[in-house]
Design brief:
The protein is of the alpha+beta class. 23% of the residues lie in helices and 40% in strands. The strands form three sheets. Strands 2-5-6-7-4-3 form a six-stranded antiparallel β-sheet. A three-stranded antiparallel β-sheet has the order 8-9-10. A two-stranded antiparallel ribbon has the order 1-11. β6 (85-93) and β7 (98-103) form a beta hairpin.
């Protein structure tokens, strides 16, 4: 009987762990570190957050204007969870205190996300004399444009990698059937590349919360 009581806490702890997949629900709140996210323990409750929030569920985005903390001094957020869904911090617009978070689309050991970033470019503009075709004025003009980024997130470490065929082939190395299928796939054929990640995640689930996070 004594052994039963000694093992019971370990068994209960193991029962609380679940694979990170589309059914996994994170506790709602603000996470300041990747470790906190893996431990499923928000550092700050939503009631302590200032700002006006817009949740774009179909676009996997959350925007918070005037983001701030009502009490205490905290670091920049790493991630948030709303309705159990995780969103990672991707950018800030300091002039408005604007914070944007991108949701995980495929969820697993290797998750995926997509978000926009602003790229500033410089273009040389010239004005030409219509008579002789000679440039009489020139100067550089700066322009901002949106650039879509697609990333794989290694949820064990938080590392973000390019979401492309070459990267996925490297990540699934050792899974001969997946490698063979990808080698026969046209360059960056999205559906098959994503399918390889999904299958890999099913074979190598990440159980949360991590054991070391509970110590």
């Amino acid at each position: 009987m004594k052994w039963i009581f000694l093992l019971l806490p370990l068994w209960l702890n193991a029962q609380q762990r679940a694979p990170l997949d589309g059914n996994f629900r994170f506790n709602d709140g603000v996470y300041l570190t990747h470790a906190a996210l893996l431990n499923n323990r928000p550092d700050v409750d939503w009631s302590d957050i200032d700002g006006e929030m817009v949740q774009l569920t179909e676009d996997h985005r959350v925007q918070v204007e005037g983001f701030g903390y009502k009490s205490g001094a905290y670091d920049q957020p790493y991630a948030i969870s709303l309705d159990g869904l995780p969103y990672l911090f991707v950018r800030e617009e300091p002039s408005r205190g604007f914070h944007e978070f991108a949701g995980l689309r495929i969820r697993g050991t290797y998750s995926t996300m997509q978000y926009d970033t602003v790229v500033r470019t410089r273009h040389l503009m010239k004005a030409y004399n219509p008579v002789n075709g000679i440039a009489f004025r020139e100067g550089y003009v700066e322009r901002d444009r949106q650039n879509a980024l697609r990333r794989i997130v290694d949820m064990r470490s938080g590392r973000r990698l390019p979401l492309d065929q070459a990267t996925v082939m490297r990540l699934v190395d050792g899974e001969d059937d997946l490698l063979s299928a990808l080698e026969r796939t046209a360059h960056n054929e999205e559906n098959k590349v994503l399918r390889a990640l999904v299958i890999f995640n099913e074979r190598h689930p990440l159980l949360l919360p991590l054991p070391q996070a509970n110590r």
